[in-house]
Amino acid sequence: MNRFMMTALGFKHDFTDSALSRSYFRAKNPTAGTGIASLDAAITRTTAAACLMTVYNAATAAQGNVIQPVRLRLRATAVNTTASDGRIAIYVDTGNRYSSGGSAITPTSVIHSGESSYVLPTSKATIHFGQITVTTQTSEIEIMDRLVSSTILAAGDVHDVWFGGGDLVSEAATGHPDTVANVCASCWVRPLSSLVVTWYGTAQAADPAFEFEFDYLETPNQN
Predict the structure, then answer these.
(1) Tens of pLDDT along 166-210?
(2) Which of 164, 165, 183, 209 reaches 20 to 30 Å from 9, CA-CA?
(3) Between the CA atoms of 35, 13, 183 and 135, what dihedral angle is there, to the nearest 10 degrees?
């Protein structure tokens, strides 16, 4: 089995395996405090031709890089007017599902060095976030489609999705009472395939906006 057998259980667990030291990446909205507009009432799930975020693994089969999501954090900066609830849906699919729209997001490595010969690692992930149009699904596999809020969003509400586990200690105890943590199944985005994420709600009549953070591991496949 490959190195992904080391499950990503959140930030309170250190990734001490030196093989992973160049493999952790983060993507986020470019301007702190400024959310990116997302979807409206017309969206019910990813195959409705739109979504919130796409992550395409542009590695070739020969390169073999595999992306393993660790955490997706969504903080509402604009509310979904008139909605009575909120859901997060996550899928994996073959091919590049991104078509147009949204913001192109450049992921960054979370390691650096002062060594003169050191070269920052470059991710194979192509990431877009916002009002995104997607291509028709090819062979989607549902990872999560879950009610995460039974009310309309409020500015400042935070939804954390931990893939395959996570640090689920309530943030209410640490000064963040508006955070909801959700465990999602582990998933692996193999070469030439996509992760697709959407937010939708019943009777949602305005575009919620989100600050986001997406953390993931990326290593060459070892199977």
Answers:
(1) 555 444 444 455 678 888 889 999 999 999 999 888 887 777 899
(2) 209
(3) 50
- Cα Rg of the chain (Å, integer): 17
| Residue 221 clears pLDDT 70, i.e. is over it | no
Structural domain contains residue 191: yes
**Residue 13 falls inside a structural domain:** no
What's the token pair of residue 30? 């470019």
User: What does the block give as tokens for 149?
Assistant: 């809020």
Q: Are 60 and 150 in contact (CB under 8 A)?
A: no
Is 50's pLDDT higher than 90? Answer: no
Q: How many structural domains comprise the chain?
A: 1
Measure the CA angle with vertex 105, ends 83 and 165; round to 5°. 65
- Give how far Cα 107 sits from Cα of 11, 62, 223, Å: 18, 22, 25
Q: Within a domain: residue 35? A: yes
Range of the domain at 118: 23-220
Dist CA 153 CA 161 (whole Å): 16
